Amino acid sequence: MKLTELSRRVEAQVEAVLDVVPNDAIARRLRELGFVAGERVEVVTTGPFGAEPLLVQIGFTRFALRRSEAARVQLREVAAP
Asked: The domain that contains 12 carries what CATH number?
């Protein structure tokens, strides 16, 4: 599943950040910001127009991402405790 497909307030784990083009600067920046394998992430809310931007929380940090940026983040579901 991609980050754009994650429902609000549902936690998931980052599996990978996919490069859309070779040497994808946006994918590289997402990895630098903490979108790395194993990190937990959730969509806090979405913007009012076209559900953009997405307010995403990873750890204790929140980011506003465009849907095109969030689509690069591949997720896996978190097992229930």
From this structure: 2.30.30.90
- CA distances (Å), origin 29, targets 24, 36, 56, 76: 9, 11, 15, 21
Rounded Cα distance between 34 and 48, Å, is 26
The number of CA neighbours under 13 Å toward the Cβ of 63 is: 17
Partners of 48 in the β-ladder: none
Calpha distance 74→81 (Å, rounded):
22
What is the block-wise mean pLDDT of the chain (81 residues), using blocks of 10 residues?
94 96 95 95 92 93 95 89 64
23 to 12, 18, 63, 73: CA distances (angstroms): 26, 11, 22, 16
Q: Which domain holds residue 50?
A: 3-77
The number of distinct structural domains making up the chain is 1
